[in-house]
Design a protein that fits this description.
Elements (H helix, E strand, L loop, with lengths): L3 H4 L1 H11 L3 H32 L15 H4 L1 H29 L10 H8 L3 H29 L4 H30 L6 H4 L1
Length: 198
């Protein structure tokens, strides 16, 4: 959906208008929020259980195992960056679009003018840097999380373990590059002009 903004402001705003604050978009948003909260709570519970299982000797060995990926060792830090990025994204877009429409708030741009909002947000280099950091953290988090979820569900074996890793990395890389492309296209002015959005 967001990639459409690179090619046509009008098409992107049509999508924004279609979704808007319609009941199905609100239900989907509440569902995603509930799943995100469950994921975060469960991650903290698992972290606490892992630390408890290790007891007071958890720092007895400080060498990092060679087979354990960097993302796996830093999942909590990556998770915190992802959560902070979600907060920033909710403020920059959800609050000014869906929430503004639901609450009947007056905003500088129409809640359905997602194109204008993307353009305004990513004309600020601070937001560009913060979003790229956020998207890189999401890449690490998801590229590890994808195959890790398959392993947790038991949908892996000697052959499929490597395949899930490759599938996960390819999928997540394509997805995150699409998001980064939107950020950079608007920052460097490659996206269509605001006039083309009308």
């Amino acid at each position: 959906m967001n990639v459409a903004a690179i090619f046509s402001g009008k098409a992107y705003n049509t999508i924004c208008e279609l979704l808007g604050a319609n009941w199905y978009a609100v239900v989907a948003t509440i569902g995603l929020a509930a799943l995100a909260v469950c994921h975060i709570v469960y991650a903290f519970i698992l972290t606490a259980q892992n630390r408890s299982a290790r007891g007071s000797e958890r720092y007895a060995v400080t060498a990092k195992p060679e087979k354990v990926e960097w993302a796996s060792q830093n999942m909590l830090v990556l998770g915190l960056i992802v959560v902070l990025g979600i907060g920033l994204h909710l403020f920059n877009f959800w609050y000014k679009m869906m929430f503004a429409e639901l609450a009947g708030m007056q905003t500088a741009l129409s809640p359905s003018d997602g194109f204008g909002l993307i353009k305004a947000t990513f004309s600020n280099p601070v937001y560009v840097v913060l979003y790229i950091i956020w998207l890189v953290a999401i890449w690490f988090h998801l590229s590890h999380g994808f195959w890790s979820a398959m392993q947790t569900l038991g949908i892996n074996g000697k052959v499929w373990f490597t395949r899930w890793k490759v599938i996960g990395i390819v999928y997540v890389t394509v997805l995150m590059l699409a998001f980064v492309a939107v950020v950079l296209a608007f920052y460097f002015g490659i996206a269509p002009s605001l006039c083309a959005a009308a």
